[in-house]
Amino acid sequence: MLKLGFVPLHRYPFDENWAIELKNRFIDVLSKEFRDVATIVYPLEKHTKMGLVTDDVDARNVVKLFKDEDVDGIILTTLTFGDELAGALIAEEFRGKPIIIFATKEPPTLPGGFRRSDSFCGTLSLASALYRRKIPFMFGGIVFPEDQEFRRAMDVFIRVTNIVKNFIGARIGIVGPRPERFETVTYNEAKMAEKYRQRVVNMELLEIVEEAKKLSDNDPRVIDVVNDMSKSVDLSKISKEYVLKLAKLEVILSEKVKEKSLSGLGIRCWTEIQRYYGVSPCFVMGRLTDRGIMAACEVDVYGVLTMIMQYSASLGKTPPFFIDWTIRHPEKPNVFLAWHCGNMPPSLCLPGTCNLVYHSIMYRDVGVEKAYGTLEGRVKPGIVTISRLVEYDGEFKLFITRGRALDEPGPFRGSWVWVEVSDLDKVYRTLIEEGFVHHASMIHGDYVEPLVNAAKILGIKAIVV
Questions:
Q1: Cα(273)–Cα(306) distance, rounded to whole angstroms?
Q2: Which CATH code fits 171-464?
């Protein structure tokens, strides 16, 4: 549950009765419409004059209130002209948190021509104060709280706030080193720590494997995972030996995530784990992602962070699919194959197309008997967002595009789906020229706007195609 701080800005001599009425309307809508995802924190009359924010004294009291409540984002609303310095004081104290500014529509003019609000004029002053201080913010529009435009802007802001909250301070566990020939998944641990307070938590692949081997087939934790696996996919095509190995691996990885407070995992998924443990971890990775533990292939730390951003944008409602950018459709110029070896989250599987089988690539090196563990089949169709985080010379960039996963068959092994975008040539060229890599994260739904705004708050350059 997020906590959002609501700041009701007012300036004398504008109509304080109108400001109080409007404040109460905003609080009522915010508290009712978004109660399932956010708690609204706001000043009462014991905190500020009339429960409004009119000067620096009020602003400092609100800062204390918000810090005590540990709010995740700030809603600055000019109910009348608003005091820009009071708003700026609060924004300065929460620099780095998502901030949205709302202007409000005008009430009828009083007899004698007195303007009761003049909100937009004050909003310009407030926005310029934040801009001058280089504090990033969103503008939600000129609204009444009952407007659909307000609800839509708040929906985006809540998703942005969730992205920022989960991105800052993320702890990414890596299981083993990256593949030696995959320089593409290198990362800058120092910059992650410096800019975003993130940490990479190293774990030995051998240690994970040895702990999994020690688990009994009758361990209640293992049995629970096997039973849960059977609910999501037909296990009859592989031996129980392999199912148990997969379940044990999932138990250990899940416990490591809890023990070390991890946000996600980058896993060395070939070929050592096949050689020395006897399964491919793809199905387990997809199941972890389904459970909200983002798991990326080939120890791709920035890939995990991209998945976290997408999953947060969905408010945890749908899991992403960690993909490779691959081939163009032989007949459709704007369609490409979104593919990976077998790590699709089971909830994304198009019914009737998925099977738990052996790895279509690794078996050539390790043999079929050590390669079981891939969930192969088609991803369900629908609108999707595809994105990828990279970093060069300390600058982080986020590629974002939207597309449509198609309901179209194909001859492929692995987890896959044909995806149509508006201009595949431009997508391919942008990926190449901007230094993006062959891994990306794809999630069902259109989350372009929340991702772009979150990137703005985080100081990440958004590149939208």
A1: 25
A2: 3.40.275.10
